[in-house]
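Title: [Solved] 3-dehydroquinate synthase family protein 3D structure

Original question kept below for reference.
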Amino acid sequence: MTDTAGAAEGTRVDVELGERAYPVHIGPGVRALLPGVIAALGARRAVVVSARPPGLLPGTGVPTLTLTARDGEAHKTPGHVASLCREFAQYGLTRADVVVSCGGGTTTDTVGLAAALYHRGVAVVHLPTTLLAQVDASVGGKTAVNLPEGKNLMGAYWQPRAVLCDTGFLRTLPAEEWANGYGELARCHFIGAGELRGLPVHEQIAASVRLKAAVVAADERDTGRRHLLNYGHTLGHALETATGFAVRHGEGVAIGTVFAGLLARALGRVDSARAREHREVVRHYGLPDRLPPGVDVAGLVTLMRRDKKAAASCHGLTFVLDGPRGPEVVPGVPEETVARVLGTMRAETAVRHPVPADPTTARGSRAP
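Solution (posted by the thread starter after getting help):
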């Protein structure tokens, strides 16, 4: 992983994957790099799938079909992927061309999977437009859609050819989208990103991308170290599914991060102060730190059995937990212990901490 900075290309972090290596550019205005990226690929035409108005997008420099993205978890389905692939085919897209995603994390996931499957793989470039997508979803090559049985159960690894994190897109985000992204930043605190509270937002994004780039370069396909990026996600994904996605991804990860601290304490892996730190970090970002009212603990345990790390253990559940050696995959956690800790996190009413109306000027998290 290399890291450079320049006025034209913003902060550049390279994801070092040999012939599949690619740059991530972070900063205001980096969307303008898109025509050059496409020219370097040699693509003759492009399909842009965008959740943003066309006027906010740069030209591609080649003949382009623009499609409206169906952003949101409700549209992260196999059927939507199939409809995108049909649009690609009707336009005459070939393996020598390029697909561009422009939207939040669900858009990068869905469009990325469509690009991975169409003609067994066509180049994709991501222009993430939300904090969640810039911090995490657009980098690393994981693409997936949901099934009724759980989140992200159908997917593929397909690395983008470039990622352009234009922080100018963040200026128009509503408070709930900032909170969604802050959930991923909160969990970064416990997996090696260091103290991010109080930093300008572009530095927070860059720190998260540097961490993810290093992890992905070492373990592209989730055989070991990359599981650390799922800190807080096992419960988070279960909460999303259990609530029909009324709990958003970042909120679920935030609650899952608090749970990870409490579970590590219950297993004797960390002390009480470290467990409290999990809740303090989550609260700093204005995120929920308890289970939403009415969620069934037994149902959550059932959903967590389907987590992709579950195969690592024949008995009990598997989580990424903090400990004396730092975060690591911990298999064989007794279900009764999990249920007991979850029981301590129940809330009679929804619990939230204040999220500023304009997060770009609060808590040091300033937009560019």
